[in-house]
């Protein structure tokens, strides 16, 4: 199957593009957190600061730049999310291709993300999660190019790391895992001595990211604030998040499930927007139970395989999944369901590799990959219309609606 990977990838990217652009700009009102995110970007453009001061400013800079190019309209609000979501699908493929060469895993992992209704739903809005996931995947890819292929990409990896931390703090535990893996692989390959390796990493992966983080606040500093005030400002933001900061929308939080539930039970909720007697319109967040519930068993399969065969590259996706997940259990603030977007790339890299391991075990790798890929295409295409809010015949989606907590709004 590996000889067809590029052809399948082309189809996957076309589908990913279609699913993230088709109808995305039709609705002129705000969707979900856009009611906070877009005004924050406009505030940054006008006053040099954002309404959502607790978060870093990179996402507001991205949205502000997009609005400057395309106008204060749905295209300006949402196009960056759609583009970065598609780019994330490609990065997942490239990362898997380095970790699992000559395997169906890269195209399986990319397909899982491309057709995931949860990822599709949020890439069609101006969510902070989409750019931060993209920047971290870019950082990971550049670090793998550096440590596995010896490419001179460390500086660019430092830039991507800076953009990651300047967007949102989802990967504060995952970033050290990537750095430790890269250092270990460079030393294992004897590509340089430990002294120069430590210096290069200290400068490129510490000073450069911090410089980019500070640079993202250039408009804020332009208002006359000092560096001391900046550190107090960010300390206050951390205090708010770590003192059981609560949301007004407790009902939505309960519907989306607690973090420990995201990969162990079906979760589906949303709104019933329209009915004309024949067709209905829904906007639904669904965690794609068929594949989400396979992630933890796949995690066990991959860990056993990695430890048994001493394959350090097999361990990286599970470790990144665990490190990213850890944040949700050590910070006191409640997390909305969309935070699971930060986990999906590593969940699907692990699941894709688990499928190939099982296929290899029973000498049916091609058949298992083809069957799995078919299921991904079918379920993704089936769920896309309700994830995107299109008019659909309700009877066709009765199996999904039966497990969905719906709020009627007409």
Instruction: For the record, give the distance between the C-alpha atoms at the N and C termini, rounded to a whole number.
Output: 48 Å
Reading the helices and strands in chain order gives HHHHHHHHHHHHHEEHHHHHEHE
Percent range for β-strand residues: 5-15%
Number of domains: 1
Q: Radius of gyration in whole Å, from Cα?
A: 21 Å
Mean pLDDT: 90
Number of helices: 19
Main sheet, how many strands, which sense, barrel? 4 strands, mixed
Topology:
Elements: H1 5-21, H2 34-47, H3 58-70, H4 74-99, H5 105-114, H6 117-123, H7 129-148, H8 154-165, H9 174-188, H10 194-215, H11 218-221, H12 227-241, H13 250-256, E1 268-275, E2 279-286, H14 289-292, H15 295-309, H16 312-330, H17 344-361, H18 365-388, E3 391-393, H19 398-401, E4 405-408
Parallel strand pairs: 1-4
Antiparallel strand pairs: 1-2, 2-3
Helix pairs in contact: 1-4, 1-5, 2-3, 3-4, 4-5, 4-6, 4-7, 5-17, 5-18, 6-18, 7-8, 7-9, 8-10, 9-10, 9-16, 15-16, 15-17, 16-17, 17-18
Question: What do you see in this structure?
Answer:
This protein has 410 residues and is mainly alpha-helical. The protein is 65% helix and 6% strand. It has helices at residues 5-21, 34-47, 58-70, 74-99, 105-114, 117-123, 129-148, 154-165, 174-188, 194-215, 218-221, 227-241, 250-256, 289-292, 295-309, 312-330, 344-361, 365-388, 398-401; strands at residues 268-275, 279-286, 391-393, 405-408. Strand 1 (268-275) and strand 2 (279-286) form a beta hairpin. It is globular, with a radius of gyration of 21 Å. The mean pLDDT is 90.
């Amino acid at each position: 199957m590996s000889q067809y990977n590029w052809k399948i990838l082309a189809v996957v990217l076309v589908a990913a593009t279609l699913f993230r652009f088709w109808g995305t700009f039709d609705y002129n009102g705000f969707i979900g957190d856009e009611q906070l995110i877009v005004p924050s970007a406009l505030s940054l453009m006008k006053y040099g600061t954002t309404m959502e001061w607790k978060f870093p400013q990179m996402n507001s800079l991205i949205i502000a730049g997009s609005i400057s190019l395309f106008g204060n309209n749905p295209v300006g609000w949402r196009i960056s999310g759609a583009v970065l979501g598609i780019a994330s699908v490609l990065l997942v493929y490239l990362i898997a291709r380095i970790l699992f060469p000559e395997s169906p895993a890269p195209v399986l992992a990319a397909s899982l993300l491309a057709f995931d209704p949860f990822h599709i739903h949020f890439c069609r809005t101006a969510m902070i999660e989409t750019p931060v996931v993209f920047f971290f995947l870019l950082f990971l890819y550049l670090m793998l190019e550096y440590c596995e292929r010896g490419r001179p990409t460390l500086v660019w990896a430092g830039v991507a790391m800076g953009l990651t931390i300047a967007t949102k703090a989802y990967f504060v535990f995952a970033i050290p895992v990537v750095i430790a893996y890269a250092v270990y692989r460079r030393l294992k390959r004897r590509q340089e001595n430990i002294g120069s390796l430590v210096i290069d990493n200290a400068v490129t992966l510490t000073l450069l990211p911090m410089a980019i983080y500070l640079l993202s606040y250039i408009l804020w500093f332009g208002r006359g604030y000092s560096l001391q005030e900046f550190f107090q400002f960010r300390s206050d933001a951390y205090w708010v998040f770590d003192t059981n900061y609560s949301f007004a929308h407790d009902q939505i939080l309960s519907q989306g499930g607690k973090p420990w539930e995201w990969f162990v039970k079906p979760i589906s909720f949303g709104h019933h927007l329209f009915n004309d007697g024949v067709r209905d319109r829904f906007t639904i967040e669904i965690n794609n139970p068929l594949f989400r519930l396979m992630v933890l068993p796949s995690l066990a399969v991959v860990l056993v395989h990695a430890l048994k065969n001493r394959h350090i590259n097999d361990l990286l996706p599970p470790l990144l999944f665990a490190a990213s997940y850890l944040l949700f259990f050590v910070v006191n603030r409640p997390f909305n369901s969309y935070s699971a977007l930060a986990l999906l790339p590593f969940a699907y890299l692990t699941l894709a590799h688990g499928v190939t391991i099982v296929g290899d075990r029973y000498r049916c790798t091609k058949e298992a990959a083809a069957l799995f890929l078919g299921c991904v295409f079918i379920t993704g295409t089936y769920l896309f219309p309700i994830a995107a809010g299109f008019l659909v015949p309700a009877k066709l989606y009765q199996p999904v609606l039966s497990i969905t907590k719906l709020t009627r709004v007409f």
